[in-house]
Amino acid sequence: MNTLVCIKRVPDTGARFALTSDGQDIDSRNLEFTISPHEECAVEEAIRIQEKQGGSTAVLTLGPEVASEQIRESLAKGIDRGVLLETDGSEWDPQATSQAIVNAVQSIQKTGTKYDLVLFGNESADSGDYQVGVRVAAALDWPCITGIKSIEFQNNQVVAKREAPGGWELFRLTLPAVVTVKEGINVPRHPSLRGIMTAKKKEIERIKPAKPELKLLKQNLRKPQEKSGEIQILGHGIEAVPAIVAKLKELGVI
Amino acid sequence: MILTIIEQDKGKIVDPSLETLTLARKFAAENGIQTSAAIAGHQVRGLSDSLKNYGLAKVYLIENERFAKSAPDAIAKSLSQLIEKTSPTAVTAAGTERGNELMARITARLMQPMAANCVEVKVDGDGFRVTRQRWGGSLLEDAVLKGRFFTVAPHAAPAEPTPTASMEIEAFNPTLDEKDFRVQIGERIESERKGVSLMDAKVVIGGGRGVGSAEKFAMLEELAGLLHGAVGGSRVATNNGWRPHSDQIGQTGKQIAPDLYIACGISGAIQHIVGCKGSKRILVINSDADAPIFARADYGVIGDLHQIIPALIEEIRRAKGGK
Ligand SMILES: Cc1cc2nc3c(=O)[nH]c(=O)nc-3n(C[C@H](O)[C@H](O)[C@H](O)COP(=O)(O)OP(=O)(O)OC[C@H]3O[C@@H](n4cnc5c(N)ncnc54)[C@H](O)[C@@H]3O)c2cc1C
Ligand SMILES: Nc1ncnc2c1ncn2[C@@H]1O[C@H](COP(=O)(O)O)[C@@H](O)[C@H]1O
User: Fold this and answer.
1) Looking at the predicted structure, is the pLDDT value of residue A47 above 90?
2) Fewest CB atoms less than 10 Å from the CB: which of A219, A230, B156, B268?
3) Cβ separation B301–A235 shorter than 8 A
4) What's the structural domain count of chain A?
5) Per-residue pLDDT tens for A200-209?
């Protein structure tokens, strides 16, 4: 079983967003970087699949040179191979991103590694386009299922589960397939010290895809208007309890 | 014509689809075009009744008994064929999980761009100028879309019915083959959990790192029981295994909109806030008066939740008993 995971580097924002003065981006000078929790789980799932089924694992990201940090983090957790589709750091739209991923998958397949499964996050944390995985599957003509919270294998089939209102939906797909996963499918591991040391020495493969004409072009970012009511402090400690009960009554909750 | 793709769950049209129809109607009025809708499913003719008051000129029905079990590829292909036949100026759907997925499948087939979770859309030259939500709704992006497919962010603006003179209904028969059904739901498993669900509850009690353990969530359950509410948690609570992930509130969990959200021992990270900002009122219990969540709250209590909540439970019991 050969699994490829696609991840995206994004700033790990704190309690508030600060934007750059030109409104083009998040001011990330004081921020760490990460990937979406969905993608962290995709990385973990790939490692677990390899532990059970054998085969190989790889991660791929399209982003600037510094995105190799996120690749190394995955390598430190146990992923075998890292591929960076290097850009100048400007934003790519979902069509351009998925085209570059498809080209990379096809060129890797030509060198002999046939992927059975390509994993994505359900949506990226920053841009939330909900489409890169679906587009890659369509271009490869592979079956695709989204929002998955459990993957099992039966013979050459994937049995995948996703949450639906009041329960679960169960899908069966034949491999090769694209699956987009959601946080909750597993609890990701932390890298071991030894893993971090080995990852440092691993070579990351680099491809520089040409940037096509974009069809979804960011002009600027801005903050939505926040509701600006005054907060009413009901009190401190257990002294506040009667005031809470009074408020709950006022709101018709009790 | 602007075409809205309608989403239904268990025989009912979902609210975000009605919100999308409202935005589509305004877009149509600004551009002097008509509005239409499409419903794909098994025996969906009856659903068109609920669309009567949304100013639609036409509803296309794509009925197939194999759509009873969601068949996303086949439905996307059917809608793609309808779009190719009718060439609408714009195509939209609700920006729900399923709506975004379906639109992604359609635009991937038609090799067209798509803008997800828009709150505003204007015609601009050959394409559109859109404002859309990013970071789960904590930021807005103004963008140019060189295309005509977009989804509408749920709960950004309310659905507004309007008196409608007449609405034509037309059946559309797509050409499908067996391969289009390669991804299909095998079964639907109903969950066994009792009580009100997080999405439907009028009161939600959220617990975070401050709760401290799975066992301590029992008091939040007890409080929820007294208020006919449901319990949810922050990512710290789910990641620590104190709650199942299906209870997570936030960007990568659920987006709730209860009448009252009571956040206990939660700091108020932006990714948590996007999951609860739809609440009508927010009450915060936190020992740190500087916790960012107070800035988002209507009512605040500063103190240790491990003292306050048991005392609160007792007081509510007394208040109820004394009625
Ligand atoms: C892309 C991305 C997506 C994310 N998605 C989500 C998501 O969907 N949902 C989510 O919740 N998070 C999400 N997060 C994580 C988020 O950034 C925060 O890390 C998380 O919400 C913090 O949880 P918390 O408030 O429980 O913990 P903390 O931030 O550690 O806060 C604990 C709070 O409890 C208070 N406290 C401690 N003890 C007590 C006590 N005895 N009594 C009262 N108060 C007490 C403290 O003062 C503090 O304010 C996401 C992060 C990223 C990067
Ligand atoms: N630049 C990128 N490089 C690699 N994978 C990506 C990139 N952008 C998005 N993805 C993958 O596609 C998923 C969906 O992204 P999106 O369509 O932007 O919501 C993400 O969770 C990632 O798994």
Assistant:
1) yes
2) A230
3) yes
4) 1
5) 999 999 999 9
CB B238 less than 6 A from any atom of ligand 1: no
Could you tell me the distance, in angstroms and rounded to a whole number, from the CA of residue B234 to the centre of ligand 1? Answer: 6
Q: Name residues whose C-beta falls within 8 Å of residue A76's C-beta, 6 or more positions apart in sequence.
A: A191, A192, A195, A196, A198, A199
Structure tokens, B292: 């960012």
Rounded Cα–Cα distance for residues B219 and A62 (Å): 46
Judging contacts by C-beta atoms under 8 Å, the chain A residues touching residue B137 are 224
Instruction: Report residue A29's pLDDT band, with 50, 70 and 90 as the boundaries.
Output: confident
Note the Cα A152 to chain centre separation in Å.
20
Check CB contact of A156 with chain B, cutoff 8 Å: no
Report the amino acid identity of residue B127: G
Cβ contact, residue pair A130, B101, below 8 Å: yes
What is d(CA B254, CA A122) in angstroms, rounded to the nearest whole number? 14
Which of A189, A231, A239, A245 is most worth mutating to test chain B (most B CB atoms within 10 A of its CB)?
Answer: A231
Q: Is A166 on the interface with B (CB under 8 A)?
A: yes
Q: Which single residue is written with the structure tokens 């271009």?
A: A139
Q: Are A61 and A7 in contact (CB under 8 A)?
A: yes
For residue A77, give the 3-state DSSP assignment. helix
Q: In this complex, do B143 and A166 lie within 8 Å of one another by their Cβ atoms?
A: no
Judged by CB atoms within 8 Å, which residues 227-246 of A form the interface with B? 227, 229, 231-238, 240-242, 244-245
Beta bridge partners of A171: A160, B185
- 10 Å Cβ neighbour count for A187? 14
Would the CB of A12 count as within 6 Å of ligand 1?
Answer: yes
Work out whether strand A10-12 and strand A32-34 pair parallel, antiparallel, or are unpaired: antiparallel
Residues in A touching B253 (Cβ below 8 Å): 183
CA distance B70 to B41: 8
Which member of A95, A221, A238 has the closest CB to residue B307? Answer: A238
CATH code, domain with A73: 3.40.50.620
Cβ atoms A165, B9 nearer than 8 A: yes
DSSP secondary structure code for residue B96 in this structure = S
Distance between CA atoms of residues A27 and B132, nearest Å: 20
Q: Which residues pair with A205 in a beta bridge?
A: A83
Going by CA atoms, what residue is nearest to atom 7 of ligand 2? A8
Contact A171 B145 (CB under 8 A): no
A161 lies in which domain range?
A: 3-250
Q: Is the CA virtual torsion A181, A182, A186, A189 positive or negative?
A: positive
Residues carrying CATH 3.40.50.1220, chain B: 203-319
CATH code at B2-181: 3.40.50.620
pTM score of the predicted model: 0.96
In order, the DSSP letters of B186-233 are: EEEEE----S--TTT-SEEEEE-GGG-STTTHHHHHHHHHHTT-EEEE
Tell whether ligand 2 has an atom less than 6 A from the beta carbon of residue A35. no
ipTM of the complex: 0.96
- Which amino acid makes up residue B320? K
The confidence score (pLDDT) of residue B1 equals 97
- Region A55-64 average pLDDT: 98
Q: What is the CATH number of domain B203-319?
A: 3.40.50.1220
